[in-house]
Specification:
The chain is of the alpha+beta class and about 140 residues long. The protein has four helices and four strands, in the order ααβαββαβ. The chain has a four-stranded antiparallel sheet with strand order 2-3-1-4, with helices on one face. The chain starts with a helix and ends with a strand. The model has no long low-confidence stretch (mean pLDDT about 90).
Length: about 140
């Protein structure tokens, strides 16, 4: 009835939330995290590894390497040779991961040299522990 009076000719859904009751129900289950005061930095790497190497192995090494500054490791691409293709772009028995790393210091803004230092250490550890090879364009 009210919808027609207001000229609204589609369905509308509404809800009334009693915030006191909602907070009581969630008590003990709420977790808050302070918003970062300093900017995070994102770096991407394309890595060539043996086919049996998993993303979890890469992520574990990355997180161990950047314990304090590395906040997130994500995969955004995996490339393997197509067995049906006549042209192979990667060496046999390998695959390529494209990974994204988010770095952040809770005490200060990261400098370019700190970022480069951590990324170089990360690359070295991936090379040593998994035989990874960084793909450069």
């Amino acid at each position: 009835m009210v919808l027609k009076e207001k000229g609204i000719d589609q369905k509308i859904f509404a809800a009334i939330l009693h915030s006191d009751e909602l907070l009581k129900a969630l008590q003990g289950n709420l977790k808050f995290k302070e918003i970062a005061k300093f900017p995070s930095v994102k770096r991407d790497l394309s890595i060539l590894v043996k086919e049996e190497v998993s993303f979890d192995q890469l992520k574990t090494i990355a997180l161990q390497t950047g314990k304090k500054l590395l906040k997130e490791v994500q995969i955004f691409d995996v490339y393997k040779n197509d067995p049906k293709a006549t042209i192979k772009k990667l060496p046999e028995g390998t695959k390529s991961y494209a990974l994204s790393f988010v770095l952040e210091d809770v005490e200060k803004t990261l400098t370019e040299s700190e970022i480069d230092g951590l990324m170089n250490k990360l690359i070295t550890n991936l090379e040593k522990q998994l035989g990874a090879e960084i793909r450069r364009s």
